[in-house]
Amino acid sequence: MVSSNKLFEEPGLKQITVWARGVYENKEARDVVVALTEAAAKEGKYVQAWENYVDLPDRIYVPVRAYGKISDQPIESKYVYENETPDIVVLTEETLVKGVDILAGIRPGAVLVVNTKRPPEYLFKFLKKGTENLKSIITVDASSLAKSIITLSGAEGATDASGIGKGLGAPLAAAVVKATGIVEFENLLKIVANKQAAKSAYEKAQVAEVKTLVNAG
Amino acid sequence: MGVVKRISGCVATANAVKLADVDVICSYPIRPYTGIMSELARMVADGELDAEFVYGEGEHAQLSVVYGASASGARTFTGSSGVGVTYAMEVYSPISGERLPVQMAIADRTLDPPGDFGSEHTDALCTRDQGWIQGWASNPQEALDMTLMYYRIGEDPRVLLPQYACQDGYFVSHILGEVEIPDAAQVKEFLPPYKNHHVLDVRTPQIIGAQMEPKMGPGMQYQRYVAMEGSRKVIEEVHDEFGRMFGRKYDPWVEEFMTDDAEVAIFIQGGHAETGKTVVRRLRSLGEKVGLVRLRTFRPFPTEQVRNALSKFKAVGTVDNSVNFGISGAAGVLLTEARTALYGLGDKIPTVGFVAGLGGEMITHDEFYKMFMKLKEVAKAGKADKQSYWLPFEL
Lengths: 217, 395
Known about the structure:
The structure holds 2 protein chains of 2 kinds.
Chain A: H1 4-7, E1 14-21, H2 26-42, E2 46-51, E3 63-71, E4 88-91, E5 110-115, H3 120-124, E6 134-140, H4 142-145, H5 169-180, H6 185-191, H7 195-204, E7 206-209, H8 210-216
Parallel strand pairs in A: 1-4, 4-5, 5-6
Antiparallel strand pairs in A: 1-3, 2-3, 6-7
Helix pairs in contact in A: 2-5, 2-6, 5-7
Chain B: E1 3-7, H1 9-19, E2 24-27, H2 34-45, E3 52-55, H3 59-71, E4 76-80, H4 83-87, H5 89-97, E5 103-107, H6 122-125, E6 133-137, H7 140-155, E7 163-167, E8 177-181, H8 184-190, H9 217-246, E9 254-257, E10 264-269, H10 272-285, E11 290-295, E12 297-299, H11 303-310, E13 315-320, H12 333-341, E14 351-355, H13 365-381, E15 388-390
Parallel strand pairs in B: 2-3, 2-4, 4-5, 5-7, 6-7, 10-11, 10-13, 13-14, 14-15
Antiparallel strand pairs in B: 1-8, 6-12, 9-11
């Protein structure tokens, strides 16, 4: 028999994990994964989006997670709690680099997208664990491009009536697309409400290679 | 033609309730089913659904409100999870006793302890003998379809029984899946308005739920038994018609997955079957003769269909996602039901019980893999060394 670990591998699967602050940013985290997976679905990909069930609900300002999966094959690890091995990690606010193991389990070539005014070099100093598999850090000042939307609409698996990508979700998803090309930017624009913020973020997001950051010390 | 969207099981159920054009909804919040009610509340507030939305002061009240509303001729909807389901326990039997086709969605949650938010079928299974139709959906699409079909079955004058439309909490209720939302006009044709022939109305006074005398008991219970047994035919008709109208054909009783030449099979209900199917597919790619049988309707229990499905294997493993401490077979109710269905076939088909996913924990690919390997062993030996295995501790 082959080892059961190998048997259940899903090579075409990309995992997206968004970290956010509980209640205040639940929508923004959810919007990033919903916007990216909806855009990918337009491209005929197999997708899945969900929020971390155990982090929620009503835990104000604690770190919470939303997840997305995009694959060219049907998704077979469907009923799980977490993305164990993310390819893309997004932070809706910069202080999450500190004290939270945001890079846990990342696969080689993973990228980190952060909503921040600060340069990647500065943020890199706070990443104590897991950087060996990290390819690049992408910074974007999403908060200057869009207004954060605080709402309970869309909580608990219900429909978000406030509009997908109306707040920070749009620029953050755009920065992910710039860094990874995981979907066509045009398709993302068809999904998000705040198209202007997405366009500006796509233009302004800074991509820094981790190799360069390490060499610069 | 309907619209395809990616929505959670909660939203899928809410969409079905809207399409069923219910008259009275009674809510009380508890995770994870609560997403259904927040969605319905939004639909009512936005004018998408014209229904009376009543906030109950607890689950007992929720069921009491829909009990009365249904008696007055309304199509009703309510729901709950976990301890909410058990808190309303007193009211289930009166509703089926009065033959009122109330529908209740249950998105499973553990009872206390552990009382976490995770899914276990224990909550809904506590209610299994109360005279309600009951079954589990394994994905959001099935949750939507089941809601529509259950109204039609329960309201059929040959049945008149309430229904529990169950879905695994979180796994089915909260993860977004692709769902085709059918066209409203087509649903209207499939599900005509509810007609109660004994409407509670001040102009034609009658007593509902009055004190009975022992001599009246046997007749009343016998009628409820006849209704439950008679529902089998209606369940089959309604699934047939649904398949013809909407193109999604479900076997009303059991879904067989890669069982054709299978030597061993898992017998399971609910969302975890989807994980089990992946394992079956992957093991098949290695030439292993394994299959899966998913129970779709739990009450009435399809004894004959389960017997037909399971009697062709050399070993069967039931997967119980519930606690039934002290039960015969030391696993869960699926094991006892499967063994009863296979009764009379001697020890020809060794049937062992697996208990898995308790506390709402995932049942992993690896765990299903281990169950299949154990079943191969059992099939080879012609018997099991134990009646049941609790995962992950005993396998």
